[in-house]
Amino acid sequence: MSLRHTYTVIAPLYDILLATAGTSVRAASLRQIPYEGNLNILIDGIGIGLDLPHLPLCHYYTGLNLATAMLSRAKPRIGNLRLKLVQGRLHTPAVCSGVLRPCCTTSDPCDSA
């Protein structure tokens, strides 16, 4: 079974099991992202978008995920974010201001060179 298939199968369970789990930890971690400026931030593994309500509105985001089922569940959480959802896998470093990896809830500088 491929990773993409696995995420497609478990996508509906994420809302049930994880929607409220770790919300305060997630919010606290994401407060490290600046609330001013207009950075280009890649969300590598956006999943069902549990981080989206906690992101500053001032930036541009690209949400990447293997499974379209996960992206479909993230879409309603976009709200007023400037966010483009992309199905696929990151093969080369993107030109961006930062990378957010929700599974770890860390943000790292991204090499723009």
Q: Care to give the gist of this entry?
A:
A five-stranded mixed beta sheet has the order 3-2-1-4-5.
Describe the structure.
This protein is α/β, with parallel strands linked by helices. The protein has a single domain (3-109), classed as Vaccinia Virus protein VP39 (Rossmann fold, 3-Layer(aba) Sandwich), CATH 3.40.50.150. The chain has helices at residues 3-18, 23-30, 68-74, and strands spanning 40-44, 60-65, 82-87, 98-101, 106-109. A five-stranded mixed beta sheet has the order 3-2-1-4-5. A hairpin with a 4-residue loop joins strand 4 and strand 5 (106-109). Helix 1 packs parallel to helix 3 (68-74). The protein starts with a helix and ends with a strand.
CATH superfamily: Vaccinia Virus protein VP39
CATH architecture: 3-Layer(aba) Sandwich
The top level CATH class name: Alpha Beta
User: Average pLDDT value?
Assistant: 79
Radius of gyration: 13 Å
For the record, give the distance between the C-alpha atoms at the N and C termini, rounded to a whole number. Answer: 36 Å
Number of strands: 5
Helical percentage: 25-40%
Strand neighbour order, sheet with most strands: 3-2-1-4-5
Main β-sheet description: 5 strands, mixed
Structural class by helix and strand composition: alpha/beta
Count of all domains = 1
